[in-house]
């Protein structure tokens, strides 16, 4: 995955942000809407696209568009940087394939130690009972 190539494929749109800012918020579009067309991306391989479709299925639209919003700061440029960073983190995180788990058995010494420990605790508890006086 080439991150500089992917960044060129991103589409940005500035929108009026909600929240603090007073009159300033009504005139400046500082909220960023980042869209990425996963289906028509040239920088991802087909197998990476399929893997991302399955992993990001809840975040994709019906047209396989990934949409992210950022309105953390009052600066449009900072919001754009934050949105790009979030996007790259999301893609990198979801492209990582988990390692296969190798099933293991406990060693014989550990099994023996566990059984001895169980015997000790059962003896300890048996000594707590009242003695039988027949």
From TrEMBL:
InterPro entries: Pep_chain_release_fac_I (IPR000352), Pep_chain_release_fac_I_sf (IPR045853). Residues 97-117 have a biased composition (Basic residues). Keywords: Hydrolase. Residues 16-32 form the Prokaryotic-type class I peptide chain release factors domain. One of its GO terms (molecular function) is translation release factor activity. It holds the Pfam family RF-1. SUPFAM superfamilies: Release factor. The keyword Cell division does not apply. Residues 97-134 are annotated as: Disordered. It comes from the Bacteria. One of its GO terms (biological process) is rescue of stalled ribosome. PANTHER family: PEPTIDYL-TRNA HYDROLASE ARFB. Belongs to the prokaryotic/mitochondrial release factor family. This is Aminoacyl-tRNA hydrolase. It comes from Polaribacter aquimarinus.
């Amino acid at each position: 995955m080439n991150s500089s190539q992917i960044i060129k494929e991103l589409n940005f749109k500035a929108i009026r942000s909600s929240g603090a800012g007073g009159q300033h918020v009504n005139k400046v579009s500082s909220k960023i809407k980042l869209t990425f067309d996963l289906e028509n991306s040239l920088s991802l391989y087909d197998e990476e696209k399929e893997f991302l479709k399955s992993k990001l299925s809840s975040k994709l639209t019906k047209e396989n568009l990934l949409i992210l919003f950022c309105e953390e700061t009052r600066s449009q440029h900072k919001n754009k940087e934050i949105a790009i960073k979030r996007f790259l983190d999301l893609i990198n995180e979801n492209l990582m394939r988990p390692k296969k788990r190798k099933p293991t058995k406990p060693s014989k010494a550990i099994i023996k130690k566990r059984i001895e420990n169980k015997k000790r605790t059962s003896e300890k508890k048996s000594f707590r009972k009242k003695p039988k006086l027949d």
